[in-house]
Amino acid sequence: MSHPLVVDVHTHVYPPAYMAMLRSRKTVPYVHDPASGDPRLIILASDDDPAIPIDQRGRPVDSSYSDISVKLAFMQQHGIDCSVISLANPWLDFLEPSEAQTWAQRINDDLEETCAQVTSGSDKALPLKGRSTLFAFAALPLSAPDPDIIVKEIKRLKTLPHIRGVIMGTSGLGAGLDDERLDPIWAALEETQLLLFLHPHYGLPSEAFGGSEAMNRYGHVLPLALGFPLETTIAVTRMLLSRVFDRFPRLQILLAHSGGTLPFLAGRIESCILHERKFVAGGGDVPGPQRSIWEVLKTNIFLDAVVYGVAGLKAAVAVGGGSDRLMFGTDHPFFPPLDEGEKEWVSVTTNYKAIDENFAGEKEALTAVLGGNAVRVLNLE
User: Fold this and answer.
1) Is the pTM for the entire model greater than 0.85?
2) Neighbours of 348 (CB within 10 A)
3) What residues does the Amidohydrolase-related domain cover (predicted)?
């Protein structure tokens, strides 16, 4: 099926400055360059087991992670007109406080420069120059010693022409997103109206999936298929319970993977809140959230369409009150074809197929989800 304008809001890249920084490190996370083959990213402590030969640790990160020309070729192959690129996990959360501000500025400037080169077509080495447009979600120096440093970077980002928001993991400053120390950051995002792209990062313990034995047997299926969605759901629910959305009613958040399990569990979450005796409404002394989860989902939350099925899309549309809060994404360069000779990515074509099926006969809704909503929400030129 031919598509209207397509904008990919969930697509990752490790820009040159980020790769250089990871290569300079000797502790997790770091990048190791084996004698042959692709660089390997050691992202988890469990990946850095001395019993594992170093050339086999972590995961390979081929050119699709860092070479923007590969990203553009992928876009052309799959009919994508515009991408909003962002770092993949682990972002900058691990940096020493003294290094956080410098690296955040360097990497965000790197993202801005990449987007500017592609948009203007000034880099002759890049394919599709002038035809594919890039924007970016920037990274934050969350380990900085003073929240003012983070706020300062948010305000600086507003001056960069191709930055349209920031990406953040579910741990925030290390204590979750209900941490009151995040309030200055929420306030700065609300003031600048930069969108927060919230993305999970292995936030549930391996014991939840059966421990190392199950992980070795089943690979990443359990943490990616179940852990990531639950992590996102827990993080947003903690924000709701701590009244973040009461204090910052104009905060705008895009949730990865269609909000995890939030669309399906929203009613249960709301019911549990209404029946909680610790909250003032139940006779307790803890101020519970004043706004319902349904209101928050319709006014503060956007969802990407990275859910791979019609049932998930229907839930995402239902909780958002319509199709105008849903945006197309690919999660590139993750979930590539297992066959090296295969050009089309099943992970992407599956999403296209689900969207086409779900919005069959609804041309306006289809156009909005594939690109129109992103253009409107992110003010893409």
Assistant:
1) yes
2) 25
3) 134-380
